[in-house]
Amino acid sequence: MMLCFHLRLFCFSTAIPSWPPYRVSRLTKLEFEINLIFESILIFGAVMLETQILIVGAGPVGQMAALMLSKHGLSSLIVDRRFERMTAPKAHAVNSRTLEICESFGLPAQSIRETGADPREAGWVRFLSRLNGTEFGHLPYERQQDDVKKYTPYPLSNIAQPDFETLLAATLEQCPDVGLLRGCECTQVSQTDDGVVSDLTQRGSSTALQVKSQYVLAADGAGSRLRTALGIALEGPEDLQHHLMIHFEADLRSLTATRPGILHFLFDPENSGVLIAYDQGKTWVLMHVFDPTTTPAESFDETTCIELVENAVGVALPDIKIRNVGPWSMCAQVAERYGDGRVFLVGDAAHRYPPTGGLGLNAGIGDVQNITWKIAAVENGWAGPALLDTYETERRPVAQINCQQSLENSGKIFKLLAALYGPDPAKTKDHFNAICATPGAFPDLAVAVEAQRPHFDSLNLQLGYRYSSSAVIDPPPLQDPSDVDISDYVPSYDTGAPLPHRWVSHDGVTRSLLSHLPCNTYSLIAGPDANAWVRAANTLDVPIACFTEGRDFADLAHEWTQLTGLPLDGALLVRPDAHIALRCDTPPADAAAFLSDKVGRLLAQTD
């Protein structure tokens, strides 16, 4: 007997008359009461759950995908092999583009900033012997101050990943069409012409169930089991370096009071690593480089970890608490394909970057923003299935650029190591001690520190990436990863680029133009005299929100033509992900036919 649960509006309903519908508690802690489901399996046998999209992985990327799908009017079920959310801080940088995306989907950027680290504490990267030792130099960590607001309404924020997930969970509580099953592993997917059937197993038992969905998003991390099951290989080097993550609690404010920072690169030859200050009064992580062939990860017990931390800090820490310890391997890899049929890889399942750059979480959120609106367009009937092919076409080149830059960032750190350790391995300690005694006497050191600056100033990488696919009219040529200037962001109104932020006024309220755009439809940004384009947009079956400069908002700089390069009767067609799809010049006689043809091409519509 197959018992079928239809996942809708946070309910499991059953066709068994004697059973009441199973009301599943809201996502207060993002956990379902899954015992009801597995108990029913014991009684009735096989169980089939149904949802529109199955999301494998309940990390921030998987949860964000669920939030986006909900805003697009689609139901989703998240499954995760872990019984509880991870508590290790992990990612910390939520960049400006990601904050713009969060804001558009109802996760307030201001809440993220207020919950995260104070920019006055997290605004620096320091290069040191030990935390209390010699400083070799320091650099600003990204652009966290208000002067960046001419490019984006939201400066980068530093927030520990668990805190970010807590805010995300609170937002998901308001989404009645999102569910989560913990302690379930997705072991296999089988595709049909009209959907996907996924096999799930309850961890720790042989109990199994199935989920029928239209699509599957594999957000199951760097070691993605789904990616492996689909036979999708990774391209690029792996195991570049092995690290031990030591998450500990200690109040180190007395050591950082005059030298605050989010990242502290430590170069003592006997104990090099990176200290990450998620909260300088409590939450820290030491990334310690180790060789698993000589010192297996299992050998790092609590006593050893405390020793490593105290050596890195430079003082004894009687009140230290070790919270999490785990090994990880640095890779620079991108999946050869971003999906198979109705199954799509997102986040770390699609790309594994070195941590130098803070790009992983942010790239993952960019992935799901891209694929979710396209799935919604197909499911809602205003796009053809071929639109989904543009997910890989658009996002994979972005991942390749990010991967290349992360790898280059790592290489620059090794050049700084070379300057500190000298050319003779036999005299490394002597050379290092001489620099510690008089760092100003070594001009090569200052040059090596300055060379790190682009690593920590990546505004163009955050805001300037462009898409080139059939979902853009007259797309730009693909960028060579080696040609990208990661710092110098120049706002662009070309097709494929994200619509640039600018301050506009409406009813006496000043806010970003981006905040006017809906996250689930196209938008037409029309010039002051572009009524013909607005009328044309309103004739189409595709939902398009229209905004006219001078009526729906006023550009504070009054620079429509200068900024966009379009006449006053021109317009910009912007996709739901805020990328420019089409530039509309002076309208032709039949603007409606022109726009209908272009939109049909953009959305892979068929007759």
Short description:
By secondary structure, the chain is α+β, with helices and mostly antiparallel strands.
Describe this structure in words.
With 607 residues, the chain is α+β, with helices and mostly antiparallel strands. Helices cover 29% and strands 25% of the residues. It has a 7-stranded mixed beta sheet. It has a 7-stranded mixed beta sheet with strand order 9-8-18-19-20-17-21, sandwiched between helices. A 6-stranded mixed beta sheet has the order 11-6-5-15-24-23, with helices on one face. β23 and β24 form a beta hairpin. The N terminus is likely disordered.
Question: Any chance you could write out the topology, listing elements then pairs?
Answer:
Layout: E1 3-8, E2 11-13, E3 22-23, H1 35-44, E4 47-50, E5 53-56, H2 60-71, E6 76-80, E7 93-94, H3 96-104, H4 109-115, H5 119-122, E8 124-128, E9 135-140, E10 157-158, H6 161-172, E11 178-182, E12 184-192, E13 195-202, E14 208-213, E15 215-218, H7 225-229, E16 234-235, E17 241-249, H8 253-256, E18 263-266, E19 273-279, E20 283-289, H9 302-313, E21 321-330, E22 333-335, E23 339-340, E24 343-345, E25 351-352, H10 360-379, H11 390-421, H12 428-437, H13 443-450, H14 459-463, E26 503-506, E27 509-512, E28 522-526, H15 531-538, E29 544-548, E30 554-555, H16 560-564, E31 571-574, E32 580-584, H17 591-602
Parallel strand pairs: 1-4, 4-14, 5-6, 5-15, 6-11, 8-18, 15-24, 28-29
Antiparallel strand pairs: 1-2, 2-3, 7-10, 8-9, 12-13, 13-14, 16-22, 17-20, 17-21, 18-19, 19-20, 22-25, 23-24, 26-27, 26-30, 28-31, 31-32
Helix pairs in contact: 2-6, 2-10, 10-11, 11-13, 15-17
